[in-house]
Specification:
With 161 residues, the chain is an all-beta fold. The chain has one helix spanning 6-9; strands spanning 11-20, 30-31, 37-46, 53-59, 68-69, 74-79, 89-94, 96-98, 105-112, 125-130, 137-146. The strands form 2 sheets. A 6-stranded antiparallel beta sheet has the order 1-11-3-9-6-7. Strand 4 and strand 5 (68-69) form a beta hairpin. The longest helix is centred in the first third of the chain and has 4 residues, at 6-9.
Length: 161
């Protein structure tokens, strides 16, 4: 039997529940202080050709102090038609991603090393904003935190400082 499994090795946090995204939204803010990597998974049901731009943000704490966009590009993958394929395709590194106009179900994945935050400025939390688009565009966002610094049956919370 393996010593760990997904539930004990990866902290899964819902950043943004599935909802219409006409006006744009900001996700919950999570701390990366106990993780060595964060994977942000965006699920987008694009029912209208209005693109959705996803922007990675950073802050000094989970209250959002000093919130600002990422300034260092990070790896991004996307599947722009989940009905046709289950393959994520590497995209150019960046700090945001625009979904394009195709009316499809899509996935976008950001892979964040906490060292890519403005650590000298005291930044240790991340969140995602979505641009205004159309009420027919639905999205949800999960974060998966990996490589916890401390082994425990229950992984530490990421929604508190």
């Amino acid at each position: 039997m393996p010593k760990s499994n997904f539930a004990t090795a990866v902290k899964v946090v819902e950043l943004l529940p599935a909802a219409a995204d006409a006006a744009g939204r900001s996700s919950d803010i999570i701390s990366l202080k106990n993780a060595t990597f964060a994977t942000i998974l965006v699920s987008l049901t694009q029912g209208n050709a209005a693109p959705v731009t996803l922007t990675l943000m950073q802050a000094q704490d989970v209250a959002g102090t000093g919130a600002k966009p990422f300034d260092k590009p990070i790896p991004i993958w996307a599947n722009l038609d989940t009905a046709a394929s289950d393959t994520l395709v590497r995209q150019p590194d960046g700090v945001s991603y625009a979904s394009g106009a195709a009316v499809k179900n899509k996935q976008v994945v950001f892979h964040i090393d906490p060292a890519q935050l403005d650590v000298n400025g005291g930044y240790k939390t991340v969140f995602v904003t979505t641009s205004a688009s159309n009420a027919a565009n639905l999205n949800s966002i999960l974060a998966m935190l990996e490589g916890h610094r401390y082994q425990a049956a229950t992984l530490p919370s990421a929604i508190i400082d």
